Amino acid sequence: MKTIAPILSVLCGLGLVALSGCGRVAAKDEQHYRAQGVAQITGRVTLDGQPLAYAQIQFSSGKSLGSSFCYGITDADGKYQMRINSQRTGSMPGDKIVRIWTTMRGDDFELLMSDRSYPANETIPIEYNRESTLTVAVEPNKSQVHNFDLKSGGRVNPAPAPNPNDE
Question: Does the predicted model carry a pTM greater than 0.85?
Answer without folding.
Answer: no
